[in-house]
Amino acid sequence: RAPKIGDLAVSGAGCTLAAAVTAELVPQGFGPITSLADVRRLIYGQFHPAAQQLSGRDFLRLKQQRSEADRLKLLAALIGVPQNEFKKIRLSEAYERYYATPSNSATLQAYGDLLSALVEGKALSQASTEYLLSVMNRVETGAQRIKAGLPATVSYAHKTGTQVARICDAGLIAPPPFRLADPAGRIVVVACVSGAASTAKAERALRGTGEAITASGVLRL
C-alpha cells in the first residue's frame, strides 16, 4: 500500500464527499478518508486512548515542541494522564502503527486510477480539470524527486507528499501545453519511498524513477 493520503485529509462533510467521489471513481483500493485532526488522534492515540479528545489547537502546540520528549510531556499535560501510563513506544513507532491501518491510505494502483480518472475528465468539468492540472503543473515542491529525472521539454503536473519516513510523488507527464482532449504522450506516474535513511536518499530514488521513464523512450521526445 502507498503511504498515507495526508494532504487529502479534510474535515467534516468534506471527508464524506471526498470518500464518496473517490469510491465512485475508484471502487477498490482506498481506505477510509478522515480529517487531518483525526490523523493526529490516531497517531497520538497509540500512546494513550485519551488522545482522542485532543483539538486542532492542541496538535499545533504539540508540533511546535522541539523534541519528542517535549511533545510527550505536553501530551501528558493536555490529556491529564501521567507519562508512566503511556505505551512504551517512540513517536516513530506510533507513526508506523498508524501507517499499518487502512485510514487515509491506498494502493499505488488506486492512486494511479484516480489520477487517470481526473485526467480523462471523469472527476471534474473540463474547465475545472484543466485549471487543477495547471495548478499542479506550477507546484514547486519536490524539485529533486521525479521531476529532476525528466527532460525540461515535458510538463509535469504533480502533487508531492511528505510524512515521517514516507515520501511520495504522483502526477501527469505530458508534452506541453497540456490539452484535455489530446491524450497523446500522456503518462500517469505514482511513486513512493519508505524507510530510506534520509529524505535526500528517498528523493534520489524518486529522481531515479523519472530517469527510468526518460530512458525508456515512452516520452517520445
Oligomer: single chain
Largest sheet entry: 3 strands, antiparallel
Which ranges are low-confidence, i.e. pLDDT below 50, for 5 or more consecutive residues? none
Principal-axis shape equals: globular
Mean pLDDT: 90
Q: Which CATH architecture of the largest domain is right?
A: 3-Layer(aba) Sandwich
- Percent range of helical residues: 40-55%
Placed side by side, the strands forming the largest sheet appear as 1-2-3
CATH class assignment of the largest domain: Alpha Beta
Number of strands: 3
Distance between the termini: 32 Å
The CATH superfamily of the largest domain is DD-peptidase/beta-lactamase superfamily
Amount of beta strand: 5-15%
Derived from helix and strand composition plus strand pairing, the structural class reads: alpha+beta
Number of domains: 2
Total helical elements: 8
Instruction: Return Rg in Å.
Output: 19 Å
CATH fold name of the largest domain, please?
A: Beta-lactamase
* N-to-C order of helices and strands: HHHHHHHEEEH
Structure explained in plain terms:
This protein has eight helices and three strands; from the N terminus they run αααααααβββα. It has helices spanning 13-25, 36-44, 56-63, 68-79, 91-99, 108-119, 126-137, 199-216; strands spanning 155-163, 166-174, 187-194. The longest helix has 18 residues, at 199-216. With 221 residues, it is an alpha+beta fold. The protein has two domains: 6-99, no CATH class; 108-216, Beta-lactamase. Strands 1-2-3 form a three-stranded antiparallel β-sheet, sandwiched between helices. The protein is globular.
